[in-house]
Design goal:
This protein is mostly helical. Helix content is 97%, strand content 0%. The protein has 1 helix and no strands. The longest helix has 89 residues, at 2-90. The relative contact order is 0.04.
Length: 92
């Protein structure tokens, strides 16, 4: 009877270890899939951030170009006004 009980405990232990190993394999596989999904998501976020940085630099370039154009037109207006002022002053 004791031998039979001992055999039953060994069988239960083998079954419990098998169940544990199966669950461990499932956990490892699921963790690997989750890591892959997270890595892909982070790569996409990094690409999006790079795209935003590129657009930001293009926007700042356009802003700088606009400011330079405004400065050129203002400077041209000032020069034209001073030339007209000198012409009117010399005609008097």
């Amino acid at each position: 009877m004791m031998n039979r009980n001992n055999s039953q405990n060994n069988d239960d232990l083998v079954v419990n270890v098998a169940v544990y190993m199966e669950r461990l394999d499932t956990y490892i596989r699921t963790s690997a899939e989750l890591n892959q999904t997270l890595s892909e998501g982070l790569a996409k976020v990094n690409n999006d951030i790079d795209d935003l940085k590129e657009w930001k630099s293009k926007f700042y370039g356009a802003k700088a170009l606009t400011m330079m154009m405004i400065a050129m037109f203002a400077h041209a207006g000032i020069i034209l006004a001073s030339v007209l002022g000198i012409v009117n002053w010399t005609n008097k």
